[in-house]
UniProtKB/TrEMBL annotation, chain A:
Family: Belongs to the COQ9 family.
Organism for this UniProt entry: Spizella passerina (Chipping sparrow)
Lineage of producing organism: Eukaryota, Metazoa, Chordata, Craniata, Vertebrata
Occurrences of domain Ubiquinone biosynthesis protein COQ9 HTH (ranges): 94-124
Biochemical pathway: Cofactor biosynthesis; ubiquinone biosynthesis
Official protein name in the record: Ubiquinone biosynthesis protein
TrEMBL record, chain B:
One GO-annotated biological process of the protein: determination of adult lifespan
One Pfam family hit: COQ7
Pathway(s) this gene product operates in, as recorded in its UniProt entry: Cofactor biosynthesis; ubiquinone biosynthesis
Cellular component, GO annotation: mitochondrial inner membrane; nucleus
Name of the gene this protein is made from: Coq7
Listed GO MF terms: 3-demethoxyubiquinol 3-hydroxylase activity; metal ion binding
Organism: Spizella passerina
PANTHER family named in the record: 5-DEMETHOXYUBIQUINONE HYDROXYLASE, MITOCHONDRIAL, COENZYME Q10 BIOSYNTHESIS PROTEIN 7
Leader peptide range in chain numbering: none
Superkingdom per UniProt: Eukaryota
Protein name: COQ7 protein
UniProt KW keywords: Iron, Membrane, Metal-binding, Monooxygenase, Oxidoreductase, Ubiquinone biosynthesis
């Protein structure tokens, strides 16, 4: 019990220090910081008496990125560590703490949406004060970006695993259209638990402040899919392919928002048709090119013949 | 270095390969790939005009070496998952026009173009070698080896150009300066876009 209380107080302190650092860089009014830190310490004293909030996984079918709040979040985070790096063995960086809070908050998104309430609830399950939500923007930007980044990482791992199976000869190499279809479907299925609130998330991702991050996440996800699909283009095709797949992904995502068919079968059919369109388009492009080359060769041949005929006549 | 207390900045989900400086390698491979691609097109343009003249075989041989260079950079590009420059279609046309245009000025004109371009490229490769050695010569050993070898071959082309009376071209210094300015601009753009 004493260790737990000590842990909580340490967590509270870390949060307070993290909060102070954030204050230095963002324009949070100093008064709020003082109130926040006082509230944090008071609340963390309260919380140690409260029973730990049971993770309400019975209520939601959300697989909730598979983390227990205690576990360290997987996936890459910037190799940045908080101030005063070398300390006790369970010291975590500010970055890692934020990751943990956001991961815990995802559970509450279906109920509260992508909001500070969800983050506050998530912080509560970690035994932190609800004021921890103040670490983040009130529109839930960081929560959404964290979720997207998480999904992309899961997709990468899935594709890498499949690639390994193919390399070991335990699975067949899929044709490109099937591969793309499956990859996009797998990625979109990760939205299903949060589908009600996803339109809200999409609009937040389009805020000018978030566009660099959301665009970067989108492009790296599409690049990943093409990489595992075996794309090795080093010319302009590199761009064409990614542009086409991005369009397919975005339109399918929008269709999914409106889809009320059982198991989203309308969406998957839409996806199949779009991928087929893209394949047909690339075949047509190849055909047009070879026809064009044949035409040019024919014209050159005709020109040479005419000029030869001309010189023959001139010589005679 | 991210500032202390910076908010979460999720960007790419791609994990860095063994701690290499990915943005630096990206730039290096992208611009070198664009350079070799452009050089290929320049020689193609020169061959289109002077292919059947006495310098044809010389140009053909230099062109073959550039084709090898391009092949190597295509491999490196896939291995390091580097994005090619958007300007490739533009370099395609511009390179061919430069090659054909300089060849229309005669054999010496073509050689002058070769000298100018190869001098730019050698200097550019030397800068990259310096940068990589400053970063970490051990980590980038393979890449350094490739760039050093290519720099030596480009230097050879430069010398071949001089041997074939490049400097006797009318308005040689004007031509050379203009071409080198173009090369500098191409390098600047291809690193970034």
């Amino acid at each position: 019990k004493m260790a737990a209380a000590g842990g909580l107080r340490r967590a509270g302190w870390r949060l307070w220090r993290a909060r102070r650092a954030v204050v230095r860089c963002q324009q949070y009014p100093p008064l709020r910081a003082l109130q926040g830190s006082a509230a944090l310490r008071a609340a963390s004293d309260e919380h140690k008496k409260e029973p730990w909030a049971s993770s309400s996984q019975q209520h939601f079918e959300s697989p909730s990125p598979g983390h227990q709040p205690e576990e360290k979040p997987q996936g890459p985070h910037p190799s940045y560590t908080g101030q005063g790096g070398q300390q006790s063995e369970d010291y975590e960086s500010e970055e890692q703490l934020q990751h943990r809070i956001l991961t815990a908050a995802l559970e509450f998104v279906p109920e509260h949406g992508w909001t500070a309430e969800a983050i506050a609830e998530g912080a509560k399950t970690l035994g932190l004060s609800v004021a921890a939500a103040g670490l983040f923007h009130s529109d839930g930007s960081e929560l959404i970006l964290h979720f997207v980044s998480d999904c992309n990482t899961k997709l990468s791992e899935l594709l890498k695993k499949e690639q390994k199976l193919v390399q070991l000869g335990e699975a067949e190499k899929k044709p490109i259209d099937e591969f793309l279809r499956d990859a996009v479907e797998a990625r979109l299925r990760m939205l299903i638990p949060y589908i009600e609130k996803w339109p809200q998330a999409l609009s937040v991702l389009l805020l000018p402040r978030n566009i660099p991050s959301s665009l970067s996440l989108l492009t790296s996800m599409i690049d990943d899919i093409w990489h595992y699909a075996g794309d090795q283009s080093t010319d302009f095709n590199w761009y064409t392919r990614r542009a086409v797949l991005t369009a397919i992904y975005n339109t399918t995502e929008l269709v999914m928002m409106q889809d009320s068919s059982p198991g989203f079968e309308d969406t998957w059919r839409f996806l199949e048709n779009r991928v087929a369109d893209a394949m047909a388009m690339s075949n047509t492009a190849t055909q047009v090119q070879s026809t064009g080359e044949a035409v040019v060769q024919g014209l050159m041949g005709a020109a040479v013949t005419v000029s030869n005929a001309g010189t023959c006549r001139a010589v005679r | 270095v991210p500032g202390a207390g910076a908010a979460l900045r999720p960007c790419s989900s791609r994990v860095a390969q063994d701690g290499i400086n990915q943005p630096l390698i990206d730039r290096i491979i992208r611009v070198d790939h664009a350079g070799e691609y452009g050089a290929n097109r320049i020689y193609a343009g020169q061959m289109a005009v002077l292919g059947r003249s006495s310098v044809g075989p010389v140009i053909q041989q230099m062109w073959n070496q550039e084709k090898n260079h391009l092949k190597k950079f295509n491999e490196l590009m896939v291995a390091y998952r580097v994005r090619p420059t958007v300007l490739l279609p533009f370099w395609n046309v511009a390179g061919f026009v430069l090659g054909a245009g300089s060849a229309l000025l005669g054999k010496k004109g073509a050689m002058a173009c070769t000298v100018a371009v190869e001098e730019s490229i050698s200097e550019h490769y030397n800068n990259q070698i310096r940068t990589l050695i400053e970063e970490d010569p051990e980590k980038y050993k393979e890449l350094l080896q490739v760039i050093k070898q290519f720099r030596d071959e480009e230097q050879e082309h430069h010398d071949i150009g001089l041997e074939h009376d490049a400097e006797a071209t009318p308005a040689y210094s004007v031509l050379k300066t203009a071409i080198q300015l173009g090369c500098k601009a191409a390098i600047f753009l291809s690193e970034r876009i």
